[in-house]
Amino acid sequence: MGRGTWGCRYELHSLLSLTLTQHPALLARQPSPTTNMVVFALLIINKAGGLIYTRTFAPGIQKLDSNDYLILAGTFHGIHAISRSINPAPPPPPSSSSTPNPSSSTTASQPAPQLPSQPPSSTAGNPTRRRPHTTGIESLESSHFRLTCFQSPTGVKFLLFTSPEQPNTDVVVRRCYEMYGNYVMKNPFYSLEMPIRVEKFDRVVAGYLVRP
Amino acid sequence: MSVYSFYIFDRHTECIYSKRFTQQPSPPRTTSSTLRNGTTVPPSLRQANKDSDDAKLVFGTVFSLRRMCRQLGGVDDQFLSYRTAEYKLHYLETPTQLRLVLLTSPQVGNMRTVLHQIWATLFVEYVVKSPLAPTEHTGGKGVGNELFEGGLERFMEAVFRPQQQQQQ
């Protein structure tokens, strides 16, 4: 009894807790991109620029009403398109084997009235030329949040608002895209480009993005 | 790790300075383009129009994004940069609403200190403190003087070339 016994019990306790944290089941769960994740909001924008899903998870960005979110989505859709056309990068030098890439900047250098998503008009010249694929904004940094934008091949944009220190946001947003494919696209009652009102999707996304 | 272009916009939303650090590609196949009413545009004028259009596009983008960041992050939130797969755009706004925009390759890190240094050591020293430069730089008057341009070139060389030399 006395100090000695308590000391031993404390040591035993700490030893046990050490071995527990080394337990394989716990170890396997640890290195995940979503531990200690702080995601503020998820927005999904359809092909035309209309907002089809908006959900906030943690406080961190200002609370806006639904109209403001709609305006934000439309604005971002436009900015995303413009950011594709102000590409200043010089074209990669044409190599002898591959087809010369005349440049995203030539495509991009058309003034604003042309939609950047249209392929360039017939270029008399190289029939084997392939138009390089220019992408829009992928990530935006501000002092209070980071916005990650993932555009699916069909033109649906996933905007993820996280804290600036959050790593692996592209993994997270791709996982959201997978969930969208599994629970929204495969839902026979969901009409395309319409606001998402699928309960299963809500539950799964909340389960993934909200950490208690 | 390279820089593509640099713009300065003043508080009257006008582009007072723009500089390209890369060669633009050669003009498209046709030697002159025709406008809708049939008049032709000479290539030099077209290039100048394109440059000013690019500057306007950049300003519009930056203005809208800044407004969006203010709306989402609060009044004190500052838009810092955005990245696409082809380039990265860095932004700094001074208290006098002078906006500095730098476009670089996507791998570049945080350029905020670089922009701040350009403003403090080059713009303030060679443009603001120049007795010949007007207070309002309408049309870019007074900004593109020799000292500022030379200083900017040397500064960009110092910032972007050493990395390339180290890699070799």
Structure notes:
- With 212 residues, chain A is of the alpha+beta class.
- Chain A contains six helices and five strands.
- In chain A, helix 5 (169-185) packs antiparallel against helix 6 (199-209).
- The longest helix of chain A is centred in the middle third of the chain and has 20 residues, at 66-85.
- Chain B is globular, with a radius of gyration of 17 Å.
- Helices cover 42% and strands 21% of the residues of chain B.
- Chain B is built from three helices and seven strands.
- The A-B interface holds A 61-62, 64, 68, 72, 75-76, 78-79, 82-91, 102-106, 109, 111-112, 123-125, 134-145, 161 and B 4-5, 20, 22-25, 28-29, 49-50, 53-54, 56-58, 60-61, 64-65, 68-69, 71-74, 76-87, 89, 103, 105.
- Strand 3 of chain A pairs antiparallel with strand 5 of chain B.
- What is the class of chain B in the CATH system? Alpha Beta
If strands are numbered along the chain, what order do they take across the biggest sheet of chain A?
A: 2-1-5-4-3
Q: Could you state the order of secondary-structure elements of chain B as H and E?
A: EEEEHEEEHH
Instruction: Give a quick account of the main beta sheet of chain A: strands, pairing sense, barrel closure.
Output: 5 strands, antiparallel
CATH fold-level name of chain B: Beta-Lactamase
General form of chain B: globular
Region (Disordered) (chain B): 22-49
Main location (chain B): endoplasmic reticulum
GO cellular component, one term (chain B): endoplasmic reticulum
Family (chain B): Belongs to the TRAPP small subunits family. BET5 subfamily.
Keywords:
heterodimer, A: 212 residues, alpha+beta, Beta-Lactamase, 5-stranded antiparallel sheet, 6 helices, 15% strand, B: 168 residues, two-stranded antiparallel sheet, 7 strands, globular
Give a quick summary of the entry.
The complex is a heterodimer of chains A (212) and B (168). Chain A has helices at 3-21, 24-29, 66-85, 104-108, 169-185, 199-209, and strands spanning 39-45, 51-56, 137-142, 146-151, 157-162. Chain A has 212 residues and is an alpha+beta fold.
